[in-house]
């Protein structure tokens, strides 16, 4: 490269950096105290600097200023009556972040920690993740600070019906299609679909995904996020001549994503030695017996600590943070945001971890990601590694439109192909923009370009 071209490149890079910094500062100013949203925006904007430097059209057209601002966000009162006859009030949210490439799509989370910041970070991430799947779906997210833990079926039903009575006004098969997330599984989706159906009339299958198989759901949707994360990590491992076969794996969480990540990793020959819930974690050196975890969590809705009563060879440790001190080859955080901090990342590295695949959304802090990248740990960011869930949701929408169902094998094959494509596109984008092997940068760029170019095509709207 001659020195004039180099100097121009540097100048473009400086301009791009200043632009990104300015947009980030305005996000902080306009969204005070929303730490999770700031964190997600920072991670994404930082990785887009080389894109801004190479394609100034995005700066000229204010794409970053527009992409960090949700198209719409609603927050609403959700009143309901508990089993004691007492009136309870929760807050509901839906963010419709970006519809440039398709209808808003993203899950609903029911958890006491839910607030505007969490919903916006998830909606922003979802926009790029959905683009990365290669399917025509925009980004959205929603939920409530309702805690389903310890509630009766009747209470969950009355809450979800009240939640849907308001959410109903904002969603539809061609505009916004929610799904499940933390605290929202088959039971909650069933109640929400029932209420939407009652208000709307007919059988509007396409309005929600993650539905039961009896009324328009897709095979493999339940397994999709966990299976997809393992397929993605498998691609990373293959690039270094490694595999799941014979490896030791630690998975956090014991919910939808964790359970099917454990199942697929074990099918590929790994020994999964630990998993957790929000109270603590279990360690079973001979490999976790998944049937027990599934019964405890999916049927009895009890705590993971119960596991050791049936498997005395295993141990239970109160508090979930130390799960990352267990030595493993592969770590799959599948519980919640910011569960791996810098110290936990250092411990994993010291213990010889070779790959980390994010099943949960933003489970690693920015500092933890730095530790992994600096130590050449294969790192699969959430946006790429856990996109299998929403990818199969889009396949569910396709089947609903066709009024047709694919077999388990057909959907699983499609999921596999999608995860391989996400991996390849992320690798290629990372290389093209000067960060070979950095899938955080690669996934952000590959997801961003499709959304940004669609926004350019639509004009300033
Ligand atoms: N369900 C999906 O299809 C999907 C898709 C993409 C990403 N995700 C993400 O995956 C993560 C898990 O979602 P899910 O659908 O499995 O939810 P879930 O409600 O089925 O399970 C969550 C699990 O995490 C545990 N947990 C919560 N806080 C914890 C903590 N601090 N430490 C350890 N465990 C904790 C809970 O006890 C539970 O076992 C979330 O970040 C979610 O946004 C889910």
UniProtKB/TrEMBL annotation:
Molecular function terms, GO-annotated: glutamate dehydrogenase (NADP+) activity
Record domain Glutamate/phenylalanine/leucine/valine/L-tryptophan dehydrogenase C-terminal: where: 218-459
Signal peptide segment: none
UniProt KW Transcription regulation keyword: no
Entry keyword Amino-acid biosynthesis: no
Keyword annotations of the record: Oxidoreductase
InterPro entries: Aminoacid_DH-like_N_sf, Glu/Leu/Phe/Val/Trp_DH, Glu/Leu/Phe/Val/Trp_DH_C, Glu/Leu/Phe/Val/Trp_DH_dimer, Glu_DH, Glu_Leu_Phe_Val_DH, NAD(P)-bd_dom_sf, NAD_bind_Glu_DH
Family matches, as CDD domains: NAD_bind_2_Glu_DH
Family per record: Belongs to the Glu/Leu/Phe/Val dehydrogenases family.
NCBIfam families the record matches: PRK09414.1
PANTHER family: NADP-SPECIFIC GLUTAMATE DEHYDROGENASE 1-RELATED
The protein's assembly and partners: Homohexamer.
Protein's recorded name: Glutamate dehydrogenase
Species assigned in the record: Paenibacillus agricola
